[in-house]
Amino acid sequence: MNLTSKQRAYLKSLSNHIEPIFQIGKSSFTPEMAQSIHEALEKRELVKLSVLKNCMDDPKELAELAAERTRSTVVQVIGKKIILYRPSKKDPKITLPKSAGKV
């Protein structure tokens, strides 16, 4: 899913108020973590991950890997924080601003 800059900015503003619910540590990104993030995205649509200091992987690479495995979109990677978004199939909660189209 491609987000416009307006939609990305909106999701960033929403993510300012949420705490990271997953931590990626020394064992890096595991299939179990991917499944847990997948389930959290279905319920919350917007999740924040924290990459711990003992993880040797690059946060940007981890963000791309997480997005690929959970079929989500990377909203932002800032420092060691990753924000992912995926609309819920059963119960969508977040309404994105419309992209600027032709009038």
Task: Give the helices and strands, then pairings.
Layout: H1 5-15, E1 22-24, H2 31-44, E2 46-51, H3 59-70, E3 73-78, E4 81-85
Parallel strand pairs: 1-2
Antiparallel strand pairs: 2-4, 3-4
SSE-based structural type: alpha+beta
Count of helix runs = 3
Total E-strand runs: 4
What kind of sheet is the major sheet? 4 strands, mixed
Characterization of the model:
Strand 1, helix 2 (31-44) and strand 2 form a beta-alpha-beta unit. The protein has three helices and four strands. 36% of the residues lie in helices and 19% in strands. Strands 1-2-4-3 form a four-stranded mixed sheet, with helices on both faces. The radius of gyration is 14 Å and the shape is globular. The longest helix is centred in the middle third of the chain and has 14 residues, at 31-44. With 103 residues, it is an alpha+beta fold.
